[in-house]
Amino acid sequence: MNETLDAPPTPWTLPVAWQRLRACARRLPWRLVALWLALRLGLSLWAALISQFRPLTPIEQRLALWPPAAPWSAWLERVLLAPWQRWDVPYYLAIVERGYRRDDGTAQFHPLLAWLAAPLTWLGLSPLLALLLVSSAATLALLIVLERLARLDLPPERARLAPLLLLAFPPAFVLFAPYTESLWLLWAVLCLWWARRRRWWLAGLAGGLATLTRQQGLFLLLPLAWELWAASERRWRVALARWRSWLALAPIPLAMLLWLVYRALALGDLRADWSSPQALIYSVLISPSASKVVPQQAFVPPWMALAHALARLAHAPLDIGTDLALGLFFLLLTALAWPCLRGGDRWLVAALVLVSFSYYTGPFYPYMGLPRHLLLAVPVFIGLAARLKPQRVARVLLPGLAGLLWLTMLYVLEAWVP
Fold it and tell me: Measured between alpha carbons, how far is 316 from 308 in angstroms, rounded to an integer?
């Protein structure tokens, strides 16, 4: 008889728990934790400094940044939280505070970020702090899992570059704002990671959670299906024999269906308009109330959206120029990374880039949010890690840090829409 099998399980005592906790701590990549903490604090202090030049929220207008003033909780809120309350953040705050409404534009925002933040408010935290904690924790987890995903294809010294390159892309400042990008990217990377390890149902669940975070989660069907096909030796007979594995795709569309059912039953916000493809997309997949957030928006061929942006460039050089410069720069990065991407990752990146460049947001600011949407194409940064020599990383990180500070400043001043 095998003594190992017959041995009783180790009792869960306090010393054993402490040993296991220490073992987990030793496995943490502390350099990523330190980098995340430095950026979290540094960008918050930078945002606070910039906010004094354009205080937009009531607490910013009421309290000075310096010197500190009692009550201290209010002053800390003014310094660390209020500068992040810009652009889309009031919509997330409204969802956390009072839930969705049909007529105020909140229905176009998927619910998972607010659902995760709401329990923290029950503990007494402010809604803005709760949102910021969720997005910040998701960013830390994202950096760790992204490096683990990169290690499946790259040696450790190159895999360590992937999260650094992600943070060096200037729109990555939004990962430290109370936005959905960090949470979506965490689920997306987990979906890719579990798919590579052939943990199909965990990958499908992560894809479903990504879909509950942002509409782009639906595109995770592409890399997950590609990995399933590769695991089936690219043969239909093998794929049919393993049909149970293919059911792992189901959580992704089911998550979208769950959200649509909620919008239909709880909000009365779902009325399919079959008059045109655009009307159908906005009445079903997004929300008829999306015009409350961006008055004019549509999906058009990317060359048409690009032509509109170029035509308006002279009228809004800061806003449109920033979007175009970062968008074209990301296309260059994608071209450099493309030879090193897996087949499924190529499908995901192509879909996200195509949709991002096709999203037209009106005649005045045609490419609103373009760099932030491109940030979701995270496999590009793994491909870049395979191409970039580790000794050259400093040449990338320093300009990237400058870009993070620059875009954070524009965001806090509301001089540019992320």
Answer: 12
403 in a domain, yes or no? yes
State the Rg of the chain over Cα. 23
Q: Which amino acid makes up residue 69?
A: A
Q: For residues 169 and 110, what is the distance between their CA atoms, to the nearest angstrom? A: 25
Q: Cα(146)–Cα(160) distance, rounded to whole angstroms?
A: 9
Q: Is the dihedral of CA 318, 369, 348, 144 positive or negative?
A: positive
> Which tens digits make up the pLDDT trace of 116-160?
999 999 999 999 999 999 999 999 999 999 999 999 999 999 999
Q: Which residue has the tokens 């997306």?
A: 188
Domain count, the chain: 1
Cβ atoms < 10 Å from Cβ of 151? 16
Per-residue pLDDT tens for 13-64?
666 656 665 665 666 788 899 999 999 999 999 999 999 999 999 999 999 8
* Residues 6+ away with beta carbon under 8 Å from 113: 92, 131, 134, 135, 178, 180, 183, 213
The answer to whether residue 22 sits within a structural domain is no
Where does residue 117 rank: exposed (0-12), middle (13-18), buried (19+ CB within 10 A)? buried
pTM: 0.92
Structural domain that includes position 249:
30-413
Rounded Cα distance between 261 and 254, Å, is 10
Q: What is the DSSP letter of 109?
A: S
Evaluate whether residue 45 is within a structural domain.
Answer: yes
State the pairing for strand pair 359-360/298-299: antiparallel
